[in-house]
Amino acid sequence: MKEAATKALMCFDTDGNGLDQTEFTEALQAFRFNRDSKKMRDTISNIFAKCDVDGNGRLTAKELTAGLPTSVLSRITKKLEAGWAFDPAVWATPSKAATVMGNSEAEVGGDL
């Protein structure tokens, strides 16, 4: 479960040096984690900070594997099992997720 979710998230590393906060946020949005609410933005920021054990502002696959909460892993795994696939034409450029997803398509959900 962790490896597949980590691999999917790392697809959003557009510059090849680990996921920065923006890439991580967009990756989660691609899996329908709603970043529109302050609570969710704070939660995503807290997850990023927890995973970024070396404090360099970038997440490696190893950091993600070790630090992602089970609830996040589970949700990503369910999307992958349902057929979600990374499409570089849609997601590979910064801020594309926000343009593609828009507020109307983002799921409004509870806590991660």
UniProtKB/TrEMBL annotation:
Entry-linked InterPro entries: EF-hand-dom_pair (IPR011992), EF_Hand_1_Ca_BS (IPR018247), EF_hand_dom (IPR002048)
Keyword Disulfide bond on entry: no
Domain annotation EF-hand: ranges: 1-34, 39-74
PROSITE patterns, A to Z: EF_HAND_1 (PS00018), EF_HAND_2 (PS50222)
Keyword Calcium: yes
One MF annotation (Gene Ontology) recorded for this entry: calcium ion binding
Record-given protein name: EF-hand domain-containing protein
Record's keyword terms, sorted: Calcium
Domain of life: Eukaryota
Gene3D superfamilies: EF-hand
Signal peptide per UniProt: none
